[in-house]
Specification:
The protein is an alpha/beta fold and 444 residues long. The chain is built from 16 helices and 8 strands. Among the domains are: 55-71 and 88-140, no CATH class; 163-179 and 280-413, Nucleotidyltransferase, domain 5 (2-Layer Sandwich), CATH 3.30.420; 181-264. 50% of the residues lie in helices and 9% in strands. Strand 7 (327-329), helix 13 (337-345) and strand 8 (349-351) form a beta-alpha-beta unit.
Length: 444
């Protein structure tokens, strides 16, 4: 390069491309190791190494191995050399849901995501691919087998002396339903909706007689399925409305323009229920029975009328355990004189608050002339310090169980519809609660 070419670059231009020299007195920049999180790592690690030895998932999996799963396997068609894809082991699906309830996961989609990304659920899957359709179908698709599974766990706990039904408390827990308040309608409105749905179904049937193109035919078929589904929803709502009206009649509740009987077209078996914050929202009402000593959940049901649920729950628990409840404790919402007489005849003591008398100055604990012997004994019993002390323990047991299931076991809001599916979801939560509380002892 000659001198003329060198003169084309000024001193300033040369300084722009030359390295900046630190000041003589300033310290040099530190050399730091910075994270590179986009790197792909190939580590020699097994799934067994992902979890510590005392992790809850290992306890749940070990407890699951002790149980009989034949009820869940009866419907599996892939057997022996029969052609077809192998079914996912119900023990794996059950462990996923139970661990999910322990971690307060109540969604099949969320559980599927955890199976792909979370070490705990990857360990449970053991390399199996699981989708949310399989998870959701399993959760609610085996009601009888699930009920038997719940009984199996209680039987093992009773055999080890961890649980008894000597003294059982009962309480209800309203759970927010997967339905909107606007889906509730009166009989007049439902009759109009039913007529509209029937006309829509007939219209779809008329279009079926035509010969559209294949794409249009698929669209018409989808519309016909939607019309039939809507028609069935409104019919179900009408049937549930009749049940609601009959229940109001039994309770001698007079209908009014402010609170007429209504049913939901989205989830007909739900009801507008008063929630703990005082508001009224669509809900299902969960009935829970617990052993007062161990605080194990020993009975689960879905029912709105508390006065009719005491006897039903006692019968359920006694059938599960093959023994009689000695003392049944519940609050004033369950009090029904006929129920107290029935329990007394079966050898069960009822502890429940005596309602305040309507007549001022009347002793609520004094037997009345029309009281049966069983009711008179109940009034006198509830006036003793021993009965009041035992009844006082009800709140600490039932409220603890209710709060645990609703806050920590995936029941903060229902993602399923219908009393049957709600019961299945509640049974999985109750199973997770019992296994988390007693699992380590159960497998020991």
């Amino acid at each position: 390069m000659d001198m003329n070419q060198q003169s084309m670059f000024s001193t300033d231009q040369l300084n722009l491309v030359s390295p900046v020299k630190p000041n003589a007195g300033a310290p040099a920049e530190p050399r730091l190791r910075r994270p590179q999180r986009q790197q792909v790592l190939l580590r020699p690690v097994s799934l067994e190494q992902l979890l510590p030895p005392d992790h809850s998932a290992r306890i749940v999996w070990a407890a699951v191995q002790l149980l009989d799963w034949s009820g869940f396997e009866q419907g599996i068609a892939a057997r022996g050399e029969t052609a077809g894809r192998a079914a996912t082991d119900p023990r794996v699906l059950a462990t996923l849901w139970l661990q999910g309830m322990i971690d307060n996961v109540g969604s099949g989609r969320q559980l599927e995501e955890l199976c792909q990304n979370h070490a705990t659920y990857q360990w449970i899957c053991g390399g199996l691919s699981i989708n949310y359709h399989t998870l959701n179908d399993f959760r609610t698709g085996h009601p009888q087998a699930l009920d038997q599974l719940f009984t199996q766990v209680l039987g093992r706990l009773m055999y080890k002396g961890l649980v008894s039904i000597n003294t059982v408390t009962q309480d209800s827990l309203p759970l927010r339903a997967s339905a909107g308040a606007r889906s509730f309608a009166t009989r007049d409105t439902l009759e109009k909706k039913l007529a509209e749905a029937e006309n829509h179904v007939k219209e779809m049937g008329r279009l079926a007689d035509e010969s559209p193109a294949q794409a249009a035919e698929r669209q018409r078929a989808a519309q016909e399925r939607a019309a039939n589904r809507r028609h069935e929803q409104v019919k179900d709502a009408m049937e549930e409305l009749t049940k609601i009206e009959e229940a109001k009649a039994r309770q001698k509740e007079k209908p009014s323009k402010h609170s007429p009987a209504k049913a939901s077209t989205t989830d007909p078996e739900s009801r507008m229920e008063r929630m703990p914050d005082g508001g009224r929202r669509p809900a299902h009402k969960l009935q829970l029975a617990a052993d007062i000593l161990s605080r194990a959940i020993v009975g689960v049901a879905v029912g709105f009328n508390d006065k009719e649920e005491g006897g039903k729950m006692r019968q359920q628990v006694e059938q599960r355990f093959g023994a009689k409840i000695a003392t049944h404790i519940y609050d004033g919402n369950y009090v029904k004189l006929q129920e107290i007489e029935n329990a007394d005849a079966q050898g069960t003591i009822i502890l429940a608050p005596v309602p305040k008398p309507k007549k001022e100055g009347q002793d609520r604990y004094a037997p009345r002339r029309d009281d049966s012997e069983a009711v008179a004994r109940w009034r006198q019993r509830m006036n003793t310090p021993e009965a009041r002390q035992m009844y006082g323990a009800r709140a600490s047991t039932s409220e603890t169980v209710n709060a645990d299931l609703k806050t920590h076991r995936g029941l903060s809001r229902l993602l399923v519809r219908g009393a049957g599916k709600v019961l299945s979801a509640a049974l999985w939560s109750a199973l997770a609660y019992n296994l988390l509380r007693f699992g380590a002892v159960l497998i020991g």
